[in-house]
Amino acid sequence: MEELIVNLVSFMVTSWRMTTVLIASAVLAVGLAIAIPPFTGPYGIALVLLGVGVGMWWHSRAMEIRVRSA
User: Fold this and answer.
1) Cα–Cα distance, 44 to 23 (Å, whole number)
2) Whole-model pTM over 0.85
3) Tell me, what DSSP letter sits at residue 40?
4) Residue 66 has pLDDT above 80, yes or no
5) Which pLDDT tens digit goes with each residue over 3-59?
6) Is 37 helix (H, G, I), strand (E, B) or coil?
7) How many CB atoms neighbour CB 61 within 10 A?
8) What letter would DSSP give residue 5?
9) Which phi and psi angles does 40 have, rounded to 5°?
10) How many C-beta atoms lie closer than 10 Å to residue 25's C-beta?
11) Alpha helices in the chain (DSSP H)
12) Residue 22: C-alpha distances to residues 13, 67, 70 (Å)
């Protein structure tokens, strides 16, 4: 489990796409939690995890395009 966490953290540090989406989704989650009272912690966590998934998808698409063009 620790190896998985270390790999995810290193991936987020080395991938600017992943970091950008993670920060944006975290800021959006906090903003929604402040603005909308029913938007609680679990919804915020789900939003951030969705952002992580989008960041992984974005990065994988970029790597696929890079491989095809090379």
Assistant:
1) 13
2) no
3) -
4) yes
5) 888 887 787 777 788 889 989 999 999 999 999 999 999 999 999 999 989 988 998
6) coil
7) 11
8) H
9) -100, -175
10) 20
11) 2-14, 16-35, 41-69
12) 11, 25, 29
